[in-house]
Structures are given as C-alpha cells and as structure tokens.
Amino acid sequence: MDTTINQNTNRMPKKESIWDKILPRDYLWAAFIFTASFVSWLVYSEFMDVYEEAILFGTALATIWMGWYWRSFQTHFYTVTTITLMALWMYQLNGNEYAAQETNFFLKYLISSQAAIMWMTFFVLVSTITYFVAFFKNSDFIYRLSTFLAWTAATFGFVGMMVRWYESYLINVDYGHIPVSSLYEVFILFVVMTILMYLYYEQKFKTRAMGGFVMVVMSASVLFVLWYVFDRQAHEIQPLIPALQSWWMKIHVPANFVGYGGFSIAAMIGVAVLWRLSLEKRSPQHRLLTHMPSLQTMENIMYRSIAIGFAFFTLATVLGAMWAAEAWGGYWSWDPKETWSLILWLTYAGWLHMRMTKGWSGPVMAWWAVIGLFVTTFTFLGVNIFLSGLHSYGEL
Amino acid sequence: MSSVNTTTQSKTAPKPVKKPGLWIEFLGSMNLAITLLVMLSIASVIGTVLQQDQVVQDYIIKFGPFWYEVYLSLNLYEVYLAGWFMLVLLFLLVSTGVCVTRNTPVFIKEMKQYSEKLSLTALKHQPNNTTFTAAYSIAEQQSFAEALLKTEGYKTRIHQRSDGSVTVAGLKGHLNRIGYFLSHVSIIIIVIGALMDSNAYLRFAEIFGNLEAETRSVPLDEVNPNSWLTPANFSYRGNVNIREGRSADVLFLPHRQGYLVQQLPFRIEVEDFRVTYYDNGMAKSYESDIALYSPDYDEPIRETIEVNYPLYYKNFAIYQASYGDGGSLVNFNVHALNSPIASKTELESAINRHEYVNTPEGRFRIEFNDFQLYNIVPRDEEEAAITGRKMKNNGPSVLYRVRNEQGIAVEYEQYMIPNEQEGRWFYMTGVRSDVRDDFRYLFVPADDARTMDRFFNMLALVNNPNNAAVIWREAFPKPLEMDDRSYSMHLQLMQQLTQLYRQAGFDGITRFIEQNVPLDEQEAVASFYFGQLANALQSLYLHVLEQEGVAMNSNQDISEEHQIWFEDALTAIGALHRFGSPVLLQLTDFTLIQSSGLQITKSPGKNVVYIGSFLLILGIFFMFYVRQRRFWVHIRPQEGHTEITLASKDNRKLPETDAEFEAMVNKFKA
Ligand code: HEM
To answer: What is the value of pTM for the model shown?
Structure first.
C-alpha cells in the first residue's frame, strides 16, 4: 500500500503554468519594457491624448509578450535600444541640432536615421546573396552568417526608424511624428517587420533554406527605397497633413504591414515549393532537393504566414475603416486603396478556404500565394502609382 | 490536417435528419462561395480601374460609342451601385447564411462530442497514437489520466466498458469552432450594416416615388421640389458650405449627375473657421467652431471640429471636410489701361458677387470668384539657398473674371502686395482665357514707394500722343540743319512707333518692318526704329521721373535701379496688348470671410458594421490560434498490469504536435 501511495504522489501531474516557463531574463525583460514605457509616459504624457496613452500601454504589454514568446526578440530590442540611445546622445552632445547628422562622424556615417537605413539596405542586399550561396553550397557556416546579417539589417532598419522619430522633433517640434506616415517610412517598416517575421519562422522551423527566397522581396523593396531616396529625396522629413494627424495611424499602418509581410513570405515560399515540385518531377535525385525543407514544412510555413498575415490584415482593414469614418466621414467609400484591400482580403480568404475546407495543397496553392504577392504589391504600391483617391498620401 | 478533419467529421457526425434540397446544397456550397468572392473581386477591380461617376462625354471619348453603350448596360460606371453587384452581395449573404446554419449544428455537436466511445482500432488510427503496458491498477491509471488531462486544460469524459476497459477522452480548444461561427456570422452582420447605410432608400424613392436630381446650380428656394429629402431619410452622407457667422439646416447629396437637398433635423452654425500652417507653408490644421441647435436641447451644443475630430450627435457625425471663401469683402483700384490720363477709380465688392464697369471699349462685367489669404509657393533652389527658407508667401490674391458684352471672359489672378524677384518688386497679375491653361503673368514694376503710380503715369503718357509730342519737342529740339518737314516727320515716327509698340509690343514693330520694308533694308531700318523708340520712351520716362521729383544730375544720368525699372516697365507695356481687357484691378483692401465645408453623415449601420468587424477579428483569431485538440487514454486490464493506448488528434497538424504528444506519453510512462 505504502508504495502505491508513494508512487501515486510521485505521479501526481503538476500543473504547468506559464509562470514556470518564464526565466529570470524574462522578468528582467518585463521590468525593462515597463520602466522604459513608464519613463516615456512620465516625460511625454503632457503631449499625449488618452488614446495615445492607451496605445503606449498596449504596445508595452504586446512587447513584453512578444519578448516572452520569442526570446531572440529581447536581444534584438536591447540592441536597437542601445544604438538608438547612442544616437540620441550624439544629438544631445551636439546641442540637439538636426544639422549634427552632417557633422558628427557617428551620426553621419552610422546611426543618424538616414545612415542607419542605408546600412539596412546594404545588409539586406548582402544577406540575400549569402543566403543563396549557403543554399547552393548547403553550408551551415554561411547560413549562420546570413542569419546574422539579416538580424543586422533588421536592427539598423529599426534603429533608423526610432532615430527618425526623434529627428522629426528636432527639425521642428511641430513636425514630430512616428515614422509610419509616408511611403518611404512604411517601406522601411515593411522591410524590418518582414525580416523579423521571417527570422521567427527560420528559428521555429529550424530551416534557413528559405532565407534567400524571402530576402528577394526585401532586396526589391530596398532597391525601391534607394531609388526613392536618390531620385526623389523621399527621405526628407515632412510634417503631417491634417488627415494623418490621428492616433489611428499608429496602429492601422503597422497592422497592415504584418499583413503584407506575411503574404510576401508566403509567396516566396510558394516559389520555393514550385521549384521543389518541378525538380522532383524532372530530376528526383537532384542535389538541391536535399537542401530544401520538406514539402510539408514549406507548406506549413506558408499556411502560418498567410494565417498571421490574414488575421492582421483583417484587423488593419477594420481599423482603417474606423479611421476613415473619423477622417473622411464614411467607413467605406470604395476608394481604390480600400477596394484593393478588399480584393486582397478576398484573395486570401479564398486561399484559406481551399486549404481548410477542401484540403488543397501543392502547386495550385503555391501559385495562388505567388499571385497573391502581385495583388499585395498592387495594393501597397500600384494603387498609389496608377489610381488616385483619398489615400493619395504616398504618391510617387 | 483539415482534410482528415472534415472526413472524420462526416463519419462521426450523425447526418442531418432531412437531406438538404439541391438548392440549399448549391447555396451553401464552397464552390458558389468562391465564385462569389471572385465576382466581388472582379467587380472591385473594375470599379477602381474604370474611373467611376465621370461625365458621359469623357467615357464616350475614351471608349468610343459602342463600348460606351456596352459598359453602360453593365452599369460599369457605377459598379458599386449596380444591380448585379447588389445581387452578388445578396448571394454572398445567403450563401454564408446557409453555410453557417448548416455547419453550426454539426460543429456544436462536435464541440460537445468527446468521442469517448471510439474503439481501440479507431484510436490506433488517430494521427498520434502509442500503446504500452504499465504497472498500475486500472483505477489508478484512470484517476491519473483524468488529473493529467485536467491540468493540461482538457475537459474529460469517461467511458466504462463491459470488458473492464476504460476510456478517458479529453477535449480542449472549442473556441476554435466558436471562431468559425463568429467570423462567418460577422460577414452577414457586416453586409447587413452596409446595406442599412447604402442608398437603398434613394433607389426606392426613385423607382416608386418622383425623386429626381437637381442639375442646375440655383438658390435653395428654386430647387426642384422633387429633389428634396425629408429628415425621415434613413441614412445619408452629404456636404454643405457654411459661411462664418451663418448657419444651415440642409445638406447637398451628390446624386446621378446632380444633387439632392436633404433636410436636417437640426441647424448648424459655423461661428469661426481657421487654418493654421507649418513653417514650410503646409496646412497644419483646419478647424471650425460650430454650434448645433437641436429642438431636443435648450442650449446649442458648441464644439470645435477638426479633420479627424468630428462632432458626434445621435446617429450623426459632423466633419470638417473642406473650406472656401465665404464672400470676403474686397476693395480695388480700377486702372484704365488705355486712358490718356492716369486715372484710378475705386471699386468695392465681395467674392461671389459681380460688378459692372463702363469703359470707352464697352461695358464689362467683373465676377469675383475667390480670395486667398496666403499663397505659399516653393522658392527656387538658388533663393532657398540664400534665404534658408524653402517656401515663401506671396500674400493675398483675388481671382476674378472680366466678361465683355459678347459674354467672353478672361480670368485674372491678382496679388495684393508686390513680389520680390532678384531684388526688384513687381505687382503680379495672372491672365488666362481658358481655365485649363496656366496663368501667364504680367509683372508691373513697383516704384520707389512700392506703388504702381509711376507705371500708370508712364502708361498714360504712352497712351497720350499729344502730351508725348510736347515732351519730345522739348527733349529733342529741332536741329538747325533740319527742315521743318523732316522734323515733324521725325516726331511723327516716334509717335507711330510708340503707338505700334503699345498696341502690339516689340513684335508688332518687327512685323511692321517685315511687311513694309524691302528685305535688304530691314536690318538697318530695324536698328534705326528701335533706337528711335528707345529715345522716345526714355524721354517720356525721364519726364515722369521729373514730375515725381526724383533727383537727377543731367538728362541721361539716372541710377542703375531706375534704368532697370525702365526696362521692366517696357516689358510690361509691351505685353499689355495681351492682357485681354482694358482694365486692371488692383486689390487694395479686404475683409476675410471664410466658409467651412462640412460633411454630415447619418449612418445607422455604422455600429452594426463595427460590431460585425469586432466579431470577425475575434473569430479569425480563434480559428487560427486556438487549436482544438482531442486526447484519448484507453486503459485495458491485463494480467497483473494494464495496457495503455494513448491517442491524440489536432484539428491542424502543427510541427509541435508530435513533440507535445511525446511529452504527454512520457508523463504517463514516468
Ligand atoms: C466573405 C466570406 C467569407 C470569409 C471572409 C470567410 C473566411 C474564412 C476564414 C478566414 C476561414 C478560416 C480558415 C482557417 O481556419 O484557416 C474560414 C473557414 C471556413 N469557412 Fe469561410 N468565409 C467566408 C464565407 C464562407 C462561406 C460562404 C462558407 C460556406 C460555403 C464558408 C465555409 C467555411 C468553412 C466550412 C470553414 C472551415 C472551418 C474549419 O474547419 O475550421 N465560409 N472562412
């Protein structure tokens, strides 16, 4: 009897709560985010309305959760914070003059927003190449290097945005705004978000082979950014027009870019899937087949990124409608941007149904995801270029 | 995976009692749903690629008469209002409705179903399963299984079989299924909300009543009585411009190629309107102080609205949408350009009014169309580099048209204050005879006192051959060796050249020479003529300067500044023949009165749409991120020990599924 009781108590299942999974570094992280938000609130609360305070609070919680869910994000965020603070310190040392970015060595070549963004473009382009080299050579070392470069690109991009935020206030307090308002700014946001999302999947699914594919879209974006800077001086910080002076912007825009990011990743995985399928058909013994993850893994990543993209895109569209109701007087006006968001949304609603209810997979779904990227690009860029409407902020 | 999921579903779920009819089958089918989604997408693409609600002529020019008709019959110019588009939406509504009604009971059943009676063979066909033997008694195993599943968040159900075996079945994540229900019902809710806010009422009134759009722009009391809508209208979105200090209780709804007038159940007064600017000249804010007078309140509701910050009142929202001139008072000096004496008369008027002026050339109607307080324009790069500012303010301007007796109008844009260009100051007046053209500018140089007086004094002399002749006689006395006839011919030539120049500019003189002088002499004659003209005008100018009392040492010795002024004046006078009317208005004073463009919406469906949207998001997150999981523990007695079969099924196969199952198995084996 004794033994059984013993065994029984031994075997009593322990309730494994989330708190058991939280490490000391997670508490440190929470404390850090909390303090940072609290300090920002103390310093800036007089400039915020209640919605902005709510957004600050919400962002803090989401960031804490994000860091717990994905620990690498903590490291990333610490790095970004450190570099950003260094840039701000440099500005302080130079009398808080925007012009310091021309004179101070560190700012000019490294961490003023424009310099950081240029470094981001550089690292994106380089990591695209190294990811592909690693893919063809199946070299673990080069893969690790590529991952590091991708992280570096995301870090510089993130720093660029944070510093730009500060700089907009330096130019003129009136101009100050979070950098998610112009086409240029959202492109940076898009690149940073998508790289981070990709890196998450890379870790989660333990495959780096998709890196090159995803980075192709990032490279294209970055080339566009370069053209936009050198041909159109798009990086100049402009004040916000009245229609954009809204707290809705602060959540609508980032939510949208989680959507676009997810769809882009899915499309590029789709390309890889199609490649794999055609290789399997033509030469089943092909060396590259062993370099790729299994079809199932790829389709899984594709589903995952479409799911997160779709969820956030839905959120963004709804937020957009609510914002439109406040700024233009109607939650839906069939403005081209709105309409194309609907088209994009329906495109992926169709994809998800085919997969969930009919269990479709393989080339059709891969093609669908690839075509989805074209619809995404048109919604993101094409509408601004070819169609005019209420959303004409990001005109080229 | 879900294909597995759906097949097991149809196996485990009892069939509905009645087989659905063919129609229901069709309406609830995925194929129809996808077809509808595709049609909706295509319609949307058309709606954005083909510009909507344009003027008929534009379409005909673009597509040709044939395709114009084809597109018209498909209603492609108003896709989002087209009957077939509504039909697609309606079908989507029905289809989603059928789908939800058919699936929900099955899903609810499935949510409640623990499948605890599944046979051992069935368990061994689940995506994850394993069998092993253990030392504990059945009762111990059972209580452990229950406790473990509970701590893992499962709800459990126990099935005791007659052969002594026991199944503990666990289920968790039923929110996933609720997610399906929420997200699909929300589609229906959203479409209903959108229909509530559509213009269904107007279409109804058009078909069954006598509603028709007013296409003329006439005062309110002349608007067609059939174009009025009462406050009973269910939902609408329209605009009204209200002048500062005035109020309105109607809205204008754009409709077809005209508009409708909507009566409001309240009155809105605009007390003040303001625009503020950034230092680079971009608009920073548009604000109106408004007061809303409603019969339901004794006191008006006063609030300042701004872009992004409307006033909400009941089902209504009042937005800052635009602004314009509300009839600013404007004062002018009217200069007669052809007059032989410098004369100016004063004129008082207001924007949106018109005045008549009588001139020897006839009666002209002057229509004042707009007033701008600021004209902020970019500086050219050189200037920006010198001043360090990218933008500059050209000051107030007024837009007006001068219409002759034949009804032909020329449009002008006149700036009140002189504008600096390369250190010189000019009064600018833009001219165009077609609104599609850009303005061409007349630059009248300002004199030392920054007025136009010197210019008009000079112009009066140019216009006055008699006075000019006197001056020339004085300036160019007859040389002794010249006879009287040659001298008077010389003076006459000066007069003629001056006239020609005034009437047609330098080009006029060049043309005159080309037409009247043999080719081989043209060059010589031209240089002689231009020399004479220069002398003639220069002496008039010196006379003007003398009259003004500007100090000069000798006749020819004037300052460089004054010399440049002369050249600028010559350019201006030489361009006057293209000015298009014989009067130039100079804005001298104004009182700004603005009007605020308000957009007012009544949108009872808005909250319905918002609730629907909220449920949609919630549902989608549940569907994607709550996993529905089942876990079975089958315990079978064997001599001295127990045989345990564990099985699990996820409604989505995820990479972590296997690892999680493994962990559970280890806990059992521990
Ligand atoms: C605009 C209309 C619709 C939208 C946006 C929509 C959206 C969605 C989404 C996002 C999913 C989730 C897929 C997933 O779990 O990954 C889904 C699942 C599903 N939808 Fe729809 N849907 C629509 C209309 C319909 C219609 C008309 C039907 C019926 C024919 C339908 C039947 C289903 C079914 C059966 C599922 C699978 C539920 C499950 O097994 O979890 N949907 N829908």
So the answer is: 0.84
